[in-house]
Amino acid sequence: MNMYDYVIVGAGSAGCVLAARLSEDPAVRVALIEAGGPDTAQEIHVPAAFPQLFKSGLDWDLDTDPEPGIDGRRAYLPRGKVFGGSSSINAMIYIRGSRADYDGWAAAGATGWSYDEVLPYFKRAEDNERGVDEYHGVGGPLTVSEGRSAHPLASAFVRAAEQAGHKANEDFNGETQFGVGRYQLTQRDGLRCSAAVAYLHPALERPNLTVFPSALAHRVVIEDGRATGVEVERDGAVEVIRAGREVILSTGAYESPKLLMLSGVGPAAALAPFGIDVVQDLPVGQGLQDHYMTLLNFRTDTESLIGAATAENAALLQSEGRGPLTSNIGEAGGFFRSRPELDAPDVQFHAAPVLFHQERLGAPVEHGLSFGPCVVAPTSRGSVTLRSPRPDAAPRIVHNYLTTADDRDAIVAGIRIALDIAEQSAVADLVTEPFDAPASDSDADLLAWARRSGQTLFHPTSTCAIGSVVDPELRVFGVPGLRVVDASVFPSVPRGNTNAPTITAAEKAADLIKGAVR
To answer: What's the whole-model pTM score?
Structure first.
């Protein structure tokens, strides 16, 4: 019998952290189940190549149902199906979010999740090349570094934003998020430092850690009300991997709720049509949040990233860890408020020295610069529900992007900020004409363009949230032996890219899990 102390489902950002931290104790046996395989593809580790992974075999390649707020379009949702999960296919931007996010969670009942309480876990996780200070740590598994591309088009965006009156910010993870600048990245020597590279690879040689790749989880086995294992399919055969202490789901904001519902944990009314016996009636899959983004695209005669894939640049990356191939594409950006009375940002910008359009599925065949806003503190909420009782069926996903007045106002205000930046000389002198931009600066045209051209920023959260599905220690209500540890437990989406918060949540969860058996 396959018996372990802990069975972790999902070798993504959170699962890699948990596998590494829990297996530090040689007396503990840990199993890690992953639907994908090892992160050996070259495109994973060359930062500028990450869009080539979209719709590949390393991508779950999900889509939403028709979205009512964006003219009924279906949004493409790339998610990593590989060791490291989405940290192996993302843009490597290291952002924690705002103090207001975590303090808001704590105030609403997420005890232990205030900013001051999670900051030590951010610091423990990171090895920041800037060194130790009030906000940063060194010596952790996750390398956090300055970008080594410093593309002139990204620099032009930053200068133009400063010309438009926005302050420079050298550290979006420091005292304040507001302002513009270059992002720090999860890179090591110019290559991707995913959660797999940082946490899982060093732990793979431990005899007490067993990894099951290419294994599709069917359901959590719940016996007499307690989670006791996970039913998985490998090589065409179905087996149960048993957990003596806990089953931990770390498959993300789309797949964790799906797996719970397949296991009988979810809204009773939603499970009944599929003939699934209800173990625990909980609002699993509800409360989905994400960041919706629009990017202005401009043509330029300045060399962009489309010419980066040369033998010379490949040699530069390999020998010196620098050059255009180290670019994470979204090299620069900033945080803004759409209304002066806001205490925290509600708009975030990303700037890329390349055309970035059609959900990054459109090939950049000419030189370009793209930048624009995302709604970083959305009020819209969506859902994840079952499409089929088959474990290999994708769930139904609806984000409800731009369905609230606040979100529509924020995206329109953000586009106006972008248009103002585009008029400044640092950008205006470099671009030749719009490639994809609104028809006019009227509110109606700005909103219509946002609905037509926008996309996810790849940050789904909150479908198994603290307070509704799990308690502050991330234990599923009413099901002993079962936890969820990933971005689905966030009560709301943080203001910024979600990889660093997910890793930090897993760092904290590892301590909570270890403390539970002391």
So the answer is: 0.96
